[in-house]
Amino acid sequence: MLAATLAGCDCSGNITGGQACTGAGAPEGCGRPCSASSPCGPGLYCGDDGECTADCSSTITCGAGRVCSGDGHCVESGLDGAVGDAQRPDALPADRTCASVTVDATRSTPNVLLVIDRSGSMNEDFDDGDSRWDVLESALLDTPDGVISPLQASVRFGFAMYDESGSPSGCPDLITVPTALDNYDAIETEYRMRNPAGGTPTGDSIQAILGRLDSLIDAPDQPTVFVLATDGEPDTCEDGDDEVNGRRESLEAVQAAYARDIRTFVISVGDDVGADHLQQIANAGIGNAPDEDMPAAPFWVATDTAGLRTALETIVGSVVSCELTLEGEIDPTRACDGEVRLGGDPLTCGTDWEAVDADTIRLLGAACDRLQRGGEALTATFPCGVIII
Questions:
Q1: What is the DSSP letter of 297?
Q2: Residue-number span of the structural domain to which 353 is assigned
Q3: Quick one: 263 and 374 in the same domain?
């Protein structure tokens, strides 16, 4: 949850706008030019004329039943500008045309299910001497450089590792951790307990995952994606050597996932999977025809630690939303009159952020990357006239 503040004029019948900035004792900074990238200091707000001003101060008081807020607005007594104050029923008195309004801005927190091939060939080594299994473990679980740890607060990670190893549960043999926020410890525990063995029934496994989806997905109202990491041609539960039907079943399973609004991104761990099959899986994973080539969907072939880490970071980063929904509305044509900050740093409209529509803003470029990494508060402030009350 990210807080976004829609700040408007304070139109009291007792206090004239900007009165505290007239005459002796005016707060320091009154009249200074201001903008979204050059905000006013404490006790001041940026007026419609582009200058810092205040309606009240330590010497200019508000009318009865009202107090001076931290940015120089008169507000109802008991409202100090904290998150949620302006959402109180008494926060908008009848004699005010607009007010300081604090709303929530939310972005999606996707479910990312890591579908991991645990077949025996994952024991094979890359050229650097580390096994495919260990390299994948490092790319996922290293701290702080693995994929899961830095993003677990903004992505609901889970996993399903699969093989065909003749377990009592039958084929496919699935070991799962349901998606959840802050899920690193649960995933690490299960991964480090397991070792590769058996075949690669990819299609059977994805179909089995779809059959258990209700118990595996923590937030079904949020986007869900599968990240398929496999190192070999798929086979089937019926025949561990049947790659023809293995390919067909894998493709059909990915198409079945997409029919349930689940995209699939595929990584070949090593170069033993045919590029033609990877391309078909990648295309089907985003809803394209399997043999579509205009444009062809991306897939990844990782033959070392760095390549695997990059592939995972690219895929997971692409599904972390940089769009934020405002629980309020603005005039998109005047959005750049507002101020958006990330971690306290002002962002530039048009370069770092933009308005998508009346209740959505989108972070761009490096600002989006920062938001995706998590851990920083975002605020958005819009002046009176930009807000649609």
A1: P
A2: 1-107+323-389
A3: no
- Say if residue 289 is in the same domain as residue 276: yes
| Cα–Cα distance, 229 to 266 (Å, whole number) | 6
In this predicted structure, the answer to whether residue 5 has a pLDDT above a threshold of 70 is no
Coil, strand, or helix at residue 29? coil
- How many structural domains does the chain have? 2
- Whether residues 336 and 253 share a domain: the answer is no
Both 227 and 309 in one domain: the answer is yes
Tens-digit pLDDT profile for residues 168-177: 568 999 999 9
Residues 228 and 286: their CA atoms lie apart, in Å, by 13
**Looking at residue 378, what is its pLDDT?**
80
pLDDT tens figures, 223-247: 899 999 999 999 999 998 999 999 9
- Which DSSP string corresponds to 214-251? HHH-S-TTS-EEEEEEE-S----SS-TT-HHHHHHHHH
What global pTM score does this model have?
Answer: 0.66
Q: Is residue 138 left, alpha or beta, with left meaning phi > 0 and alpha meaning psi from -120 to 50?
A: alpha
